[in-house]
Amino acid sequence: MRHGDKINNLGRTASHRKAMLSNMATSLIMHKSINTTVAKAKALRKYVEPLITKSKSDSQHSRRTVFSYLQDKSAVKELFSSVAEKIADRPGGYTRILKIGNRAGDNAEMAMIELIDFNEFYTPKDKKSDAKGKRSRRGAKKSTTDKTENVEAKAEAPADVVAAPVEEVKAEEVVDAVEVEEPKAEAPEADTTENTDETK
Question: What is d(CA 70, CA 85) in angstroms, rounded to the nearest whole number?
Fold first, then answer.
């Protein structure tokens, strides 16, 4: 009878189960996701999440505690360096279990267990971009005015860039025109003075 027995023994002795979960936790930390049965994945989640929480405080004591469970120096180093940085802001729930169908040989339910922060498809990159996507009645007017200001600013920037060379060309044309017109204007004046001298 199993009255009050809340642990899933997974059909193994205590020592076998402990070694198996330790190896699976090491693999999960090193590879960030592994495929296993649903029952093992649920047991592994309970085993590995407290260890990940321990990695948030990088002290000698917490490293030794985690090493007593994992028995692998490289996995402890990986957990306290790259994994701890990614999960620093997350208050729990570091793993995700996704069912992937049944195994061909014995029809066992299979699942993929992964570290949430290392999956780029499910994890949003920027929280700010999600906040901009939300709309409400109160914020609708403000957002439209912001958008129009942004559009006007974008429209002005290229116009300045395009207008600058055109203005330079016009200035050069004006200078050329003035240089050409000045001799013509002087010539008739000289002619009129000559005519007046001749008439005298």
Answer: 19
Residue 6 tokens, joined = 């809340």
Which residues have CB under 8 Å from 109's CB, separation 6+? 37, 38, 39, 99, 102, 103
Class of residue 38 by CB neighbours under 10 A (exposed 0-12, middle 13-18, buried 19+) = middle
- What lies within 8 Å, CB to CB, of 68 at 6+ separation is none
* Average pLDDT of the segment spanning 140-152: 54
Distance CA 39, CA 97 (A): 11
Q: What is the chain's percent helix, strand, coil content, to nearest 5? A: 65, 10, 25
User: The pTM is what?
Assistant: 0.61
CATH class of segment(s) 14-123: alpha beta
Which of 14, 83, 8 minimizes the C-alpha distance to 38? 8
Domain locations along the chain: 14-123, 127-200
Q: List the one residue out of 108, 106, 95 whose CA is nearest residue 36.
A: 108
Q: From its phi and psi, is residue 87 left (phi > 0), alpha (psi between -120 and 50) or beta?
A: alpha
Pairing of strands 95-102, 33-37: unpaired
| Measured distance CA(177)–CA(17) in Å, rounded | 95
pLDDT tens for 62-98 read 999 999 999 999 999 999 999 999 999 999 999 999 9
